[in-house]
Design brief:
The protein is built from 21 helices and 16 strands. The protein is of the alpha+beta class. It starts with 11 loop residues before the first strand and ends with a helix. One of its GO terms (biological process) is DNA integration.
């Protein structure tokens, strides 16, 4: 049954995990203002149907300094020692006036107690009069002090001047405080500025717009700077990344993600790696991006991908395959890093997965649930299809809420401290921390850094004790991710991971909804692909529901496409018809660049021969160093690296039937030259090599001018 809500101006609601006040309504639109000062306008229907909407929220407490109360125990713990001792001495006088003993306990009587004027047999009124005379105060004041002491305890005896409520914003106009908070929230994504220039001007403009020009003036610059320092945790003058990170921090804890067995929750995320890679061919540097898969239960790094900046959906899809594939041992690694050195039933597991024989000491886990953010590569059809094929659940983190996956966010900091800082070419995590000669220090290529990172994961991270992992029953004993994995196998068991021989091809994206096989081949992105296997399916309707043939391609190498033959259940490689032997592998980004150049020249970017020529022009620039630009260097390095990665990923599955390379053009047949003077040469006369006898050739006559003179 639908629930009915009535919203009025000044009502408080919950929306997107934050409290908002309704400040205006206009038909189907609602104007909201959050407690941080952020203003939004939203359609009423969208607001009421949003899952995070809650009506009748509690208003925020009013910050009135006069009503602020202090914790008595907190006051006694924080006042100066002299003020505390004075309160204790006064309490001893009150105990003596009421009981006759300064401690209040006859069993702890001091020497000379009780004194005659405070003997317990005397009336309380007489003892109060005697104490007032001793302290030099009136008995009326002492009676009032006794009443407060009975109600508040020792706190009533503390000097009020020492326990005064400190509120430095007591005399500040509340509308000024609200305007500062609202303006700070509005500028959380802006560049940094000084407090007393742009921020002061914009705050005054906000007050003028809300209450009228000059109605609420701001204080002087020094006072305004002091107010901003007291109100805001991240001020406008702080670095922009600090303010943006602080704005994303939630105002409450919504719960912790807990996993009890390996693979129950696997977190995925990407971040720029703080290391520059060096390309020896182009003598240039480029940034890298690191994608990580972290198992929450054991804190193990299950898989990783190092790519040039700009992770694609195909990288995420194949990262899932890396999670379920053992990490191979490198020849230079020590035998202590082998999978067999883990404290697991290795012999039994080897009968289930023979790939573990040559594997490194990194867990191999079948994930149950993936947790990642709303990045475009993670929301692609490639990732969704892979998860559906492997029966893996998907859980999205909320937008702009990195605290939903804090473990993998913290892991990036650990990688920076333990790995990135120690690699030549470390550039820092921001411009403020970047060195001056980073490009000159970079000396490792992308593949070399990837190998270093693999060794770091297996030899360091998986072996090092983790503060978030503990031995069962011993909360003070920390264990490493590998030890946590071994303990988890004892309680949850080992789940064998799927090993599909066609894994690589099934993860590749399909071109649209399918393609028609024409007599000249199939067309993808205005590129024609062909192979001998397509002849038997030309102009034939496919058995698929849409009567089209699914053609898969790898965006990292568009020289080839892949076709699944339903008759022999094999994958076949389709080759681009205009791909000559001198054309290097290229990515979809390079293809778009070639089409853009064609459009700038006024040519048709849909003609395959023009695209081939434009691609060849782009790649020929890398052969002329004097024409290299920064964009050309990055494009060439990116295509070369991704083509290499594509070839490595293709080795996961059974190799596809290769397409024969195009036949080189036949050379023109040589012509026979005349051997007798005066005989005219016959153009393009072919030489019959089979009938040619070199010994039967008669030498040509040579003209001798001397013999002519003699005649």
């Amino acid at each position: 049954m639908n629930q009915r809500h009535r919203l009025a101006v000044e009502d408080w609601i919950e929306f997107e995990d934050e409290r908002h006040q309704v400040v205006a309504t206009d038909g189907a639109l609602v104007r909201l203002r959050s407690i941080t000062g952020h203003r939004i306008t939203i359609m009423l229907s969208e607001l009421l149907t949003d899952p995070s909407f809650r009506a009748f929220a509690e208003p925020p407490p009013e910050a009135d300094a006069k009503d602020v109360g202090l914790d008595p125990g907190g006051v006694l713990a924080t006042v100066a020692p002299a003020a505390r001792q004075a309160a204790l001495d006064l309490e001893a006088h009150l105990w003596e006036a009421t009981t006759g003993y300064r401690s209040g306990d006859p069993m702890k009587a001091q020497a000379g107690e009780p004194r005659p004027q405070y003997h317990p047999d005397m009336k309380k009124t007489e003892r109060i009069l005697a104490k007032a005379a001793e302290l030099g105060v009136s008995d009326r004041w002492l009676w009032k002090l006794l009443d407060r002491w009975d109600e508040q305890g020792l706190f009533a005896l503390v000097d009020g001047r020492k326990a005064r409520v400190r509120n430095p914003l007591r005399n500040v106009e509340p509308r000024v405080i609200q305007a500062i908070r609202e303006q700070s929230a509005a500028e959380r994504l802006d560049s940094s500025s000084t407090v007393t220039t742009r921020f002061l001007r914009r705050t005054q403009n906000r007050l003028d717009a809300d209450y009228g020009t000059g109605e609420v003036p701001l204080p002087k610059e020094d006072t305004f700077r002091r107010i901003v320092r007291l109100l805001l945790t991240h001020r406008p003058s702080d670095p922009a990344y600090q303010r943006q990170s602080g704005a994303n921090q939630p105002d409450r804890t919504f719960g912790n993600v807990i996993a009890h067995r390996p693979g129950q929750v696997v977190m995925l995320d990407s971040t720029p790696l703080d290391v520059l890679a060096w390309d020896a061919t182009t003598n240039s540097t480029e940034g890298l991006e690191l994608t990580i898969a972290l198992d929450l239960a054991t804190r193990s790094i299950l898989a990783w991908r190092l790519t040039p900046v700009g992770t694609k959906a195909i990288d995420i899809g194949l990262l899932l395959a890396d999670v379920m594939t053992p990490e191979p041992m490198r020849p230079a690694w020590d035998d202590a890093l082998r999978y067999s050195m883990l404290r697991v039933p290795y012999e039994r597991m080897l009968t289930l997965d023979e790939r573990l024989a040559q594997a490194a000491a990194r867990p191999v886990i079948y994930p149950e649930t993936l947790l990642f953010d709303h990045g475009k590569p993670y929301q692609s059809d490639v990732v969704r299809r892979a998860c559906r094929s492997w029966k893996i659940d998907i859980q999205d983190a909320r937008k702009l809420k990195p605290t939903d996956k804090p473990h993998v966010e913290r892991l990036f900091g650990t990688i920076r401290e333990q790995f990135s800082m120690h690699v030549a070419g470390y550039k820092g995590f921001s411009v403020a921390t970047r060195g001056r000669t980073v490009e000159e220090q970079a000396r490792w290529s992308v593949d070399e850094i990837a190998e270093f990172f693999a060794e770091y994961v297996v030899a360091v991270y998986q072996q090092k004790s983790h503060s978030g992992l503990h031995l069962h029953g011993f909360p003070d004993l920390e264990v490493s991710p590998n030890e946590a994995y071994a303990m988890a196998l004892g309680s949850a068991g080992f789940v064998d991971c799927p090993r599909d021989p066609n894994l690589y091809y099934e993860l590749l994206p399909i071109a649209g909804k399918g393609r028609v096989i024409h007599p000249y081949g199939v067309e993808l992105n205005h590129l024609v692909y062909n192979a001998e296997v397509l002849y038997q399916f030309r102009n034939a309707k496919s058995p698929y529901p849409n009567e089209l043939w699914p053609i898969r391609y790898d965006p990292r190498n568009l020289l080839h496409a892949y076709f699944h033959n339903p008759r022999d259940q094999k994958w076949y490689t389709l080759r681009w018809t205009h791909a000559l032997s001198d054309l290097q592998p290229f990515t979809d980004i390079t293809l778009r660049e070639a089409k853009r150049l064609l459009a700038q020249r006024g040519q048709d970017p849909s003609k395959p021969e023009l695209i081939a020529q434009a691609l060849r022009d782009l790649q020929n620039r890398t052969d002329a160093p004097e024409t290299w630009t920064k964009g050309t260097r990055k494009r060439w390095s990116r295509d070369r690296h991704r083509a290499h990665t594509q070839a490595v990923d293709a080795l996961r599955s059974t190799p596809a039937v290769p397409a024969p390379p195009p036949a080189p053009p036949a050379p023109a047949p040589p012509t026979r030259k005349p051997t007798i003077p005066g005989l005219h040469a016959v153009p393009n006369l072919p030489i019959e090599d089979d009938d040619l006898d070199l010994d039967a050739i008669q030498p040509a006559a040579v003209w001798n001018p001397h013999s002519a003179q003699e005649n």
